[in-house]
Amino acid sequence: MARVGSAEGVAAFAGLIADPTRAAFCLALLDGRAWTAGELARHAGVAASTATEHLNRMLAGGLVVERRQGRHRYVELAGPDVAHLVEDLAARAPSVSVRPTTLRAATATAALARGRTCYDHLAGRLGVAVTDALAGQGLLDRDGGLALTAAGRAWLGTRLDVEAADLRSGRRPLARACLDWTERRPHLAGLAGARVCERLLARRWIVRIGSGRAVRVTPGGATALRDLLGLDAAALG
């Protein structure tokens, strides 16, 4: 067994993602939900037995975790740190121009670029625009990364009803810059990013499009984002 922090250990963990099928599983699981092996198999276009083989390897390597409910086996990313790693890798991967072959595929691709969830926070043009607006109003400090200011903490409490206790959770950072793989610019991750996304979904200012990661701003959300942050949702395309 490779020791922690060894070159062998790093190579072994990197190898868990260095496969198109396992990479497809990781990207699908970035929606923050638990998937069954069958759902992941259909998503990646592989046989159920192949999916099971890959998932067993990912489980053994700590990339995903499993929970069972009755006969069903669900898997999800092992935590926000793994989600951040996957999103960061996607953002740094060389761009591969693949033209959608159907109108449905083109629509889905455009929706993901416009706005989506990245595990439990906002990404795409919407996520970057919200991050820019928060920084522009002094609620985020961009010096050396992203940090929530005192004004930002107060804003979350008064405008989004986020309790101080909701901004404390073990080792997870309060705010962190996550490089957006479509915009190639940072969006807000960490606990603050999760709470913003959670509140916007709960208030139906944004809603999911179908069962995937894409989200759209509702008419009420457009008004709220304009009032709260001076953000023009219509300009997101």
Structural class by sheet pairing and helices: alpha+beta
Low-confidence stretches: none
| Rg measurement, Å | 19 Å
Q: Sum up the overall morphology in one term.
A: globular
Main sheet makeup? 3 strands, antiparallel
How many separate helices?
A: 10
Q: How much beta, percentage-wise? A: 15-25%
Assembly state = single chain
Q: What order do the helices and strands follow? A: HHEHHEEHHEEHEEHEEHEEH
Give the neighbour order of strands across the main sheet: 1-3-2
**pLDDT average, as an integer?**
88
The number of domains? 2
Tell me the helix content. Answer: 40-55%
- The N- to C-terminal Cα distance equals 50 Å
| Number of β-strand runs | 11
Explain the overall architecture.
- With 237 residues, this protein is an alpha+beta fold.
- The protein has 2 domains: 11-78, Orthogonal Bundle (Arc Repressor Mutant, subunit A); 103-236, no CATH class.
- It is built from 10 helices and 11 strands.
- The chain has helices spanning 7-17, 20-29, 37-44, 48-60, 80-92, 103-114, 124-136, 150-160, 190-202, 219-229, and strands at residues 35-36, 64-69, 72-77, 116-118, 121-123, 140-141, 147-148, 176-179, 186-189, 206-208, 215-217.
- The strands form 5 sheets. A 3-stranded antiparallel β-sheet has the order 1-3-2.
- A hairpin with a 5-residue loop joins strand 6 (140-141) and strand 7 (147-148).
- Helix 2 (20-29) crosses helix 3 (37-44) and helix 3 packs across helix 4 (48-60).
- It starts with 6 loop residues before the first helix and ends in an 8-residue tail after the last helix.
- The relative contact order is 0.11.
- The model has no long low-confidence stretch (mean pLDDT 88).
